[in-house]
């Protein structure tokens, strides 16, 4: 319930098999499960979520992701590869969402409590857009964005820019004079913005696989704090992917 109204809150996961730097990355295995399944299981642990839908493309290469969605019991919407904004809108509409929790498929160890915190911050404010990703403070890979479907639809109607349509919330983020915003900052114990926990390149897969298999099966929902403590104690692990260059989208 938000402002006295019952709202359906749906997580959309943007994913496709044709990543330029690491093709098929979302189905790479760790502890006997695809990375995407680890992400889905974590989102299922978020109390405020009413559902999850995979937003993938109509490309034949992504048939396997539709099959994955059926196997794990989440929704699937297929749309344009390049117009990701319209794809996410379609995914949210297909699930009957009022509020979108935007997640990308390259965040397999996202912390459910951080996602929940971002949703609760959205519920408590009148802002159009709430995120922990624009002000870099959390480790990269904990990125969560929360906004109404109607906000994204309004944004889409205001821009034909290809960049905006490729990067779903870029138009919203770049126009705070139009869309009110709240940005979360990490608490000191997990403040590590230079730490890369996203699945972009082979070295990221090597690190994330080590992290997941360190905690599995005893603690499959390990927290961001658990990871930070683990990596502070294993600086050689941090070195595995520290030279990977991240794409920062403004």
Percentage of residues in strands:
15-25%
Q: Which term fits the overall shape?
A: globular
Helix segment count? 10
Largest beta-sheet characterization: 7 strands, mixed
How would you describe the oligomerization state of the chains in this entry?
A: single chain
Overall helicity: 25-40%
Order of helices and strands: EEEHEHEHEHEEHHHEHHH
Broad structural category: alpha/beta
CATH architecture: Alpha-Beta Complex
Care to count the β-strands?
9
Low-confidence stretches: none
CATH class: Alpha Beta
- Determine the CATH superfamily: Spore Coat Polysaccharide Biosynthesis Protein SpsA, Chain A
Head-to-tail CA distance between termini? 31 Å
Return the domain count: 1
Strand order, main sheet: write it out.
5-4-1-6-8-7-9
Plain-language structure description:
The protein is α/β, with parallel strands linked by helices and 250 residues long. It has a single domain (9-238), classed as Spore Coat Polysaccharide Biosynthesis Protein SpsA, Chain A (Alpha-Beta Complex). It is 36% helix and 15% strand. The chain is built from 10 helices and 9 strands. It has helices spanning 35-43, 63-72, 84-94, 112-124, 149-158, 162-166, 170-173, 202-215, 224-232, 235-238, and strands spanning 9-14, 29-30, 33-34, 51-57, 75-79, 99-104, 129-131, 145-148, 181-183. The strands form 2 sheets. A 7-stranded mixed sheet has the order 5-4-1-6-8-7-9, sandwiched between helices. Helix 3 (84-94) packs antiparallel against helix 5 (149-158). It is globular and about 45 Å long. The model has no long low-confidence stretch (mean pLDDT 96).
